[in-house]
Design brief:
Chain A has about 400 residues and is mainly beta. Chain A has a domain of about 90 residues: Thrombin, subunit H (Beta Barrel). Helices cover about 5% and strands about 40% of the residues of chain A. Chain A contains 2 helices and 32 strands. The longest helix of chain B is centred in the N-terminal third of the chain and has 37 residues. Classes of the chains: A mainly beta (about 400), B alpha+beta (about 375). At the A-B interface, strand 5 and strand 9 of A face helix 2, helix 4, helix 8 and helix 10 of B.
Chain lengths: ~400, ~375
């Protein structure tokens, strides 16, 4: 894989190998792995005997955080914070083979680090284009390292937008697309979205957003035959932008969710507004067409997941609802004990859910019904969405990182 | 033969000259690289030059670490992180046989409190990594250090010592010592609870430096959050006897208020009556023992402005986004003797149950967090 990566790098291509999980909700930003290699569907982690069956390794985390791990080649990258004020920012690299800590870098936060105790200054999941790691924090520090931990550039966006913060904690994850790192920072004090040159860290564009509380992440939208766009969802609207210029392609106005992000597949965008609203916007289109709207698909904090021709949402009460992607029709519901912050991950016919208390529910999904086939207690708080790579799942808890798979 | 000897001799001279010059050249490159890193700024300013400079600086010999660390004394927040990562990268590559020597070079830097706290803590981290005896040797001396990170660890060691002590009086004394030194909120709160359980008196407001006694006036109008920018009379005059038209034309006047909250929180709903879309002012006189800079640290669920001696030192137009001790920190210059503190607290019209608080707290302290108390302060008030 490294040889392939090197060849692609030499050709100047963005590297995304099949086993990579490059950002929040995976490389394609949908929460679906698109993989058939299903990890263990029943696993336990408490005793050594249980762990021996499916825990390939677990590593102690020397910092706290609720961001998801990402996977690039044979390495896993995790962000965290330490310090009484959570003002020491960490980016750490682990070996995928055995979970060994390979290196970590620390930085001093340049922005505000106040945060609700449930969350963390390390709430934003890092992103990668296969060549570099882009770590973003609630303090609006945006850090670029190469895969070996060498600093490439460092931006402190609070220095440019001093009022862009809230004391609950920011959480929007960065999106790297088309040579730009896009971040969305929205709060009552000040709001903006910006695209930063992935190589130099220089500002490519910046657009103001409505000053209001919002935690949604920039989302990839790549309609067939067109250039990729970045979706920015705010409480009052969703806009689609050229990631290199920030130019707005189209806009949809509606009372959008403030925590769960949009998700797209092909030329369809699912927006968490009035349940879910499905929009179609073809390549180069300056507008959108409304396909359907379904109140029964209301999201809670996790974002919707598109997998095959189904969409899955988790509401605040811990009810998992499956809907039809074509019509929006609710197909089935089941209760899976919450509350949930983490967006689920879909692999094959299974959906992996982790709730705030560290309980993982594995749900077997079908056309007409779903069933919880196993429950695992990790025994520690878990707000991060799991990552997937090559038949294994990676769970980040308050204190540990687990790799679950089949030995 | 002679010619050969001269050639050899000449070659050696050249080589010697090259060796002599090499460190000097490298030194220049590293020093120049540090200057480039110090010049980075917002918006990606200086990034392209810094990328090349970082490669040079981060591969400098470990003997250059004190120079890199000293550069942190003048570095801005962005440059500090470029330098920090270079220090870590250099430290990662120090061979085991050289680590003790490098630790010896770093110790004078760590113990020199003239350097900025962040640089000393970074130097300490590298030192402790290379010298396992450093913690036992140095940590006790950091109990009252300007670096809150070093101080914090020193306090933790003191608490371990207190827990291990079988002498109750000695343990209590150690915990009192730790409390007096504590500047991190979690340590202060935890130690205050422990001391109170032991029957020890704890004056939390004085430890933090919360201002407890205020004059309050309001409500003034803040419908549509517009009052934040309106200069109501208290912004131009402080006259305790004056009456002004307030919200909806109702007359308002100054009232005396002393908070009894141990964290100095003033509940404006309780003191002035519950009001939405409202603005209030709080005024306090503060007698400083000497002139000089202080931190003004505010917590509030509401939009706030703070003036010291008529000069605006903080302005936060944020509503119901959390409340924390030290939520907003600004610097101000106190005069020796009497000083005037004026706070404006604006409440909006949000209807959610979690958006009903109208409150603030304010403390005066130094940059480390050590309370600066008014000379006429009464203990506990």
């Amino acid at each position: 894989m490294n040889a392939l990566r090197y060849t692609l790098l030499s050709a100047g291509l963005v590297v995304c190998c099949g086993a990579d999980w490059l950002q929040f909700r995976g490389s394609d930003n949908t929460g679906s792995t698109g993989a058939a290699k299903v990890p263990a569907t029943e696993f336990q982690v408490k005793t050594a005997e249980q762990a021996a069956k499916n825990v390939l390794w677990s590593s102690d985390l020397p910092f706290q955080g609720v961001s998801s791990p990402i996977i690039v080649g044979d390495r896993i990258y995790v962000t965290g914070v330490t310090g009484a004020r959570q003002d020491r920012l960490h980016v750490a690299c682990y070996a995928n083979a055995d979970g060994k800590l390979l290196w970590q870098r620390q930085f001093w936060a340049t922005g505000r680090t106040l945060c609700h105790p449930t969350s963390s200054v390390a709430a934003n999941t890092p992103a990668s284009d296969g060549r570099r790691i882009y770590a973003f924090f609630s303090s609006n520090d945006l850090i670029c390292l190469d895969l070996d931990g060498n600093l490439q550039w460092y931006r402190g966006l609070t220095l440019e937008h001093p009022a862009a913060a809230n004391d609950v904690g920011m959480a929007a994850s960065p999106l790297v697309v088309g040579g730009a790192v896009v971040v969305q920072v929205e709060s009552k004090g000040d709001s903006f979205a910006t695209g930063v040159d992935a190589t130099t860290g220089e500002t490519l564009w910046s657009v103001p957003r409505k000053a209001d509380m919002n935690w949604t992440s920039p989302t990839l939208f790549h309609p067939p035959g067109g250039e990729p766009l970045v979706l920015l969802q705010s409480p009052d609207k969703l806009t689609a932008h050229n990631p290199k210029t920030g130019e707005q392609a189209w806009s949809y106005e509606g009372k959008c969710a403030e925590i769960s992000s949009p998700v797209s597949k092909s030329d369809v965008v699912l927006v968490p507004v009035d349940g879910i609203t499905a929009l179609r916007a073809g390549a180069g289109s300056a507008n959108w067409e409304k396909l359907w709207q379904e109140k029964g698909l209301a999201t809670g904090s996790p974002s919707a997941v598109i997998h095959g021709n189904q969409v899955y949402v988790l509401n605040r009460a811990g009810v998992l609802t499956a809907g039809d992607m074509t019509t929006g029709k609710v197909l089935w519901k089941l209760r899976a004990k919450g509350p949930y912050w983490a967006t689920p991950v879909a692999v094959g016919e299974y959906l992996y859910l982790v709730n705030q208390d560290g309980t993982a529910n594995v749900v077997k999904t079908g056309a007409e019904s779903g069933e919880v086939v196993s429950t695992t207690e990790f025994g520690e708080q878990m707000l991060a969405s799991p990552a997937y790579s090559d038949g294994a799942l990676y769970f980040r808890g308050a204190k540990h990182l687990w790799k679950i798979g089949t030995p | 033969m002679i010619r050969s000897a001269r050639l050899i001799s000449g070659t050696w001279l050249c080589l010697l000259a090259a060796f002599a010059c090499a460190p000097a050249q490298a030194a220049d490159d590293v020093s120049q690289g540090i200057e480039v890193l110090l010049a980075v700024g917002p918006e990606g300013k200086g990034h392209r030059e810094a990328q090349a400079a970082w490669k040079t600086v981060s591969t400098a010999p470990a003997a250059r670490l004190p120079e890199l660390l000293a550069a942190l004394d003048t570095a801005g927040p962005l440059a500090a992180n470029w330098l920090r990562s270079a220090v870590e990268t250099i430290a990662d590559h120090v061979p085991a046989e050289e680590q003790k020597n490098v630790a010896g070079q770093l110790e004078p830097f760590v113990t020199d409190a003239k350097h900025v706290p962040t640089a000393r803590r970074l130097a300490y981290d590298v030192l402790a990594r290379f010298d396992p005896t450093a913690a036992d040797r140095l940590m006790p001396g950091f109990l009252n250090d300007p670096s809150t990170e070093l101080r914090r660890e020193s306090i933790e060691r003191l608490l371990t010592q207190a827990a291990a002590s079988k002498d109750e009086a000695a343990s209590k004394k150690l915990q009192r010592q730790a409390f007096e030194a504590a500047r991190d909120l979690d340590q202060i709160k935890s130690l205050a609870e422990k001391l109170e359980k032991l029957g020890e008196p704890v004056d939390l407001p004085s430890h933090f430096g919360f201002v407890m006694q205020w004059k309050l006036i309001g409500p003034f109008d803040n419908a549509g959050e517009k009052g934040f920018d309106v200069a109501y009379p208290p912004e131009t005059e402080i006259n305790p006897a004056a009456k002004y038209p307030g919200k909806e034309g109702k007359e308002v006047g100054w009232i005396d208020h002393t908070t009894t909250d141990k964290h100095g929180v003033v509940d404006l709903n309780a003191a002035l009556g519950k009001s939405k879309g409202a603005a209030a002012y709080a005024f306090a006189e503060f007698r400083a023992a000497k002139a000089g800079p202080v931190d003004i640290r505010v917590g509030s669920n509401n939009a706030v402005k703070v003036w010291i001696n008529g000069k605006l030192c903080d302005s936060r137009r944020v509503y119901h986004a959390g409340f924390e001790i030290d939520q907003y920190i600004s610097r101000a210059e106190l005069s020796a003797g009497e000083n005037r503190i004026l706070v404006k607290v604006c409440e909006n019209e949000q209807t959610e149950s979690w958006a009903q608080d109208w409150n603030f707290q304010l403390r005066v302290c130094d940059a480390v967090g050590t309370a600066v108390l008014s000379a006429d302060r009464v203990a506990g008030k």
